[in-house]
Give the backbone structure.
Amino acid sequence: MADIIFVPEMWLGPDEALAGRHLPMIDWLRRKYEAGATLCSACSGAVMLAETGLLDGCPATSHWGYEDLFHSCYPKVNFDPAPNLTYADPKGRIITAGDYRYAGR
């Protein structure tokens, strides 16, 4: 079993939702988390984690350019582009990272 899974930058445009895309990967991430794996993401990798539903009701960060995408497509995620690193669950098993140069709209 993979104990730590890293979802890297996906070169996703700031208005590109993942709805209906990468379904086997999204299902695999859910199953691995339920089996005890820690999930980590960098920049737009957080969009894939949001698509799993595992970030619903949780704090998360990513590059500030994805703020509108999170608000429109993943409104249940408590998205904040300002932090560099965010632990989405109390046990620290979901970690999102974003660009530290927040544009601060």
